[in-house]
From TrEMBL:
It comes from the Bacteria. This is Uncharacterized protein. Residues 28-47, 59-69 have a biased composition (Low complexity). Residues 25-82 are annotated as: Disordered. It comes from Phytoactinopolyspora mesophila. Residues 70-82 have a biased composition (Acidic residues).
Length: 220
């Protein structure tokens, strides 16, 4: 047996003793040569750099602003947009109801209650009754475009009794049932007391110039 093979047997025996726990108390055989050669050093192993070590890392969560964290300026702008949009729809509904009342003698005048109040309600109510009494039926549809908010009070001081209405003033170009264009101004109130807007037209009248005598102001 060569010297290399002999040393391999000795090292194998040492390894087995380490693993199984050899307890031989006998004296070593004097005839057995003892290897003085240093056993080979084990090569250290390193983790694969491509393998993940430990729990997976997660990206930090970014905090995003919620709608409740908006600035007062943004809230005010949003409230104005909401109010003006609802007012435009209310004006269109007002003219739709008015057209129907003039074209359908059988339609109940109570339809006007949902879209008008005050001076506008009285004016339209009397005009419809006069037209029906004379047997006049008006055809065609009216519409409004080019809305512009002139003034508003969306959070009025409330009195001790009653309710102070929210108010908004809107101008727009009225295209009448016969095709004429007239620059109109509308005052609307909301007395519902709810968070949503329920505008009703209080005043609808043409816009006049400052001339003497005043002339109807043309649509922009």
């Amino acid at each position: 047996m060569s010297g290399t093979g002999y040393r391999a047997i000795v090292l194998t025996g040492i390894t087995v003793c380490v693993l199984t726990g050899c307890t031989n108390n006998s004296e070593p055989d004097s005839t057995t040569p003892i290897s003085t050669q240093t056993p080979p050093t084990a090569t250290p192993t390193f983790a694969d750099p491509d393998e993940p070590v430990g729990p997976p890392l997660t990206a930090p969560t970014q905090e995003t602003a919620t709608p409740d964290e908006t600035t007062p300026e943004a809230e005010l702008e949003s409230e104005e947009d909401l109010a003006s949009g609802a007012a435009e729809l209310a004006i269109l509904d007002f003219h739709t109801v008015m057209d129907r009342l003039f074209s359908d003698p059988e339609l109940e005048l109570e339809e006007l209650d949902e879209v008008a109040m005050g001076q506008a309600w009285i004016s339209v109510h009397e005009s419809v009754q006069d037209a029906r009494a004379a047997g006049r039926i008006r055809t065609g549809e009216s519409t409004v475009h080019g809305f512009e908010v002139i003034d508003h009070d969306l959070d009025p001081d409330q009195p001790e009794e009653g309710v102070a209405p929210r108010r908004i003033v809107v101008r727009g170009c009225l295209v009448t049932h016969n095709g004429d264009e007239v620059y109109f101004q509308y005052l609307l109130h909301d007395t519902s007391g709810s968070e949503d807007y329920h505008w009703r037209v209080v005043v609808d009248e043409p816009v006049f110039t400052d001339d003497d005598p005043p002339e109807p102001e043309p649509c922009p």
